[in-house]
Design a protein that fits this description.
mainly alpha, 80% helix, 0% strand, Znf_put, Putative zinc-finger domain-containing protein
Amino acid sequence: MMPCREAVRLMSDEMDRELAGGERFGLRLHTLLCTGCHHYRQQMSFLRKACRQEEKAADDAPDKA
């Protein structure tokens, strides 16, 4: 099993690029077995969605000037 440090790096990379098949499989296996990394991945996903929603809301809001 890959170490948590490698899993966290891949989770970060996954935000910027599509992972290769082996990387994706290894990360999936790791997060199935490691609850800490599983929760970390969920938190990263939640934060990314929240930032995107905030960005969209700011773009849709009329200027106050």
